[in-house]
UniProtKB/TrEMBL annotation:
Species name: Talaromyces proteolyticus
Keyword Ligase included in the entry's annotation: no
Keywords, in A-Z order: Hydrolase, Signal
Domain Mono-/di-acylglycerol lipase N-terminal, chain residue ranges per copy: 13-78
Signal sequence region: 1-18
Pfam families linked to this entry: Lipase3_N, Lipase_3
PANTHER family recorded: FUNGAL LIPASE-LIKE DOMAIN-CONTAINING PROTEIN-RELATED (PTHR46640:SF1), TRIACYLGLYCEROL LIPASE, PUTATIVE (AFU_ORTHOLOGUE AFUA_6G06510)-RELATED (PTHR46640)
Residue ranges occupied by any Fungal lipase-type domain in the UniProt entry: 105-233
UniProt-recorded name of the protein: Mono and diacylglycerol lipase
Length: 303
């Protein structure tokens, strides 16, 4: 059974969510912004390559799927990598990019059985980020279990390179964890942390979503009818961080500035949310965010 947009609209308003009325006047992006988006997504792509998150500290970042050429040309090095050490199998790396004066925390998307369990662990938990704020348990746990060692590495690296930008990125599950990690890092003093979240599911209740939105420096991307950003469902009390950078170009197509709408609001039916209920048939849209973002993902479904 398909749920129509009016029914979704009624459900959202009944739960007390604000529906934007001026979303059609979404702003356009500039060419230099597009270049930045296409660059930072390559760090999210690199987190899927096992050679970047398994015992590779000190090595250069590389992508065998050839989907991070700008990262490779920048000579970025892995400062710290993590995987297979927690119940959630949170995986990724901290990288140092001297060419772009940045320190990057990148989270891998879903690959293992433990990742998929985190994806569907929908109950709320209090992350202690603000009054009334609640986060999805699996996503928050994925960050919390690696927070101490990752934060220590970030603090040490920033002490050596104090003028560098801190950037947190991820795709899919990685984007969900990145969103909460960025919010937490900002609350711990890294207030200018930039977030680039590609294909993120909903991670927060309205209070937490508003809190993260107010922090600013958030770039949350969706693509056409990608089903992942439609989960968890609105009816479960989850909403998105604003704004939404909605990519309208088809799969496997080059994205231009005209192909991105910048939409405001935790619930906005002019973007991905308005393309209907999440369907498995729509999953091809999940892979293509400026490029095949998860091209390096390994075969099978390890524990």
């Amino acid at each position: 059974m398909h749920i129509t947009i009016p029914i979704l609209f009624s459900a959202a308003t009944a739960l007390g969510y604000a529906i934007p009325t001026n979303s059609l006047q979404a702003r356009e992006i500039a060419t230099n912004e597009l270049s930045q988006f296409k660059f930072w997504v390559q760090y999210a792509a690199a987190a899927y390559c096992e050679n970047n998150y398994v015992d590779q500290a000190g090595s250069l970042l590389t992508c065998w799927a050839k989907n991070c050429p700008q990262v490779e040309s920048s000579g970025a090095t892995i400062v710290y990598d993590f995987s297979n050490t927690t119940a959630t199998d949170t995986s990724g790396f901290v990288a140092l990019d001297k060419a772009n004066r940045a320190i990057i925390l990148s989270f891998r998307g879903s690959y293992s059985v433990r990742n998929w369990i985190s994806d569907i662990d929908f109950p709320f938990v209090d992350p202690d980020l603000c009054d009334g704020c609640l986060a999805e348990f699996g996503f928050w746990s994925s960050w919390e279990l690696v927070r101490d060692p990752v934060s220590a590495v970030i603090n040490e690296t920033l002490s050596i390179y104090p003028g560098y930008e801190l950037v947190v990125v991820g795709h899919s599950l990685g984007a969900a964890v990145a969103t909460l990690a960025a919010a937490d890092l900002r609350s711990r003093g890294h207030i200018s942390t930039a977030l680039y979240a590609f294909a993120a599911p909903r991670v927060a209740n309205p209070a937490l979503a508003k809190h993260i939105t107010t922090q600013g420096n958030n770039y949350r991307f969706t693509h056409t009818n990608d089903p992942v950003p439609k989960l968890p469902l609105l009816g479960m009390g989850y909403v998105h961080v604003s704004p939404e950078y909605y990519i309208t170009s088809p799969n496997n197509a080059t994205v231009s500035t005209e192909d991105i709408k910048v939409l405001e609001g935790e619930v906005n039916f002019e973007g991905n949310t308005g393309t209907g209920i999440p369907l498995l048939d729509d999953f091809p849209a999940h892979h293509w965010y400026f490029e095949e973002t998860d091209g390096c993902k390994g075969p099978g479904l390890p524990f």
